[in-house]
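Can anyone check this?
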Amino acid sequence: MSEDDKSFMLEILTPDRVIFSGEIIYLRAPGIEGSFGVLKNHIPFLTALDIGEIEVETSDQKYFFAAGGGFAEVLNNVVSILAETAERADEIDVERAKKARERAEARLRARTEGVNANRARAALVRAMTRLKIASKI
């Protein structure tokens, strides 16, 4: 990375694997207090991530990921995302995501005892995020 270069490093990690590692020029991620963007020389910070879309732009391509929460650290032109779950757009099983959305919607409609509404809402948001990201390929 040259001094006049706009790029910085990004790593997206899950407990299972490295989802992305490389130089990028822009990042947008879902913080728990709202979406945030990062460019080179961003002020250092640490934040919790919400369920949502991670957008990554390199010098020649855009990538989209579905994230299921976690943490992001920005420090010295390196962004580290430690995600509970994350999938690239091309990895998402659309049929599985549709079924997950249907199950979550049914649980919320039924309102039966023993069904945790917060978990059902979170499952619905995850499924809808996955479907949105999958549509971007």
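Reply from J.R.: I decoded it. Residues 48 and 71 are 4 Å apart (CA to CA).
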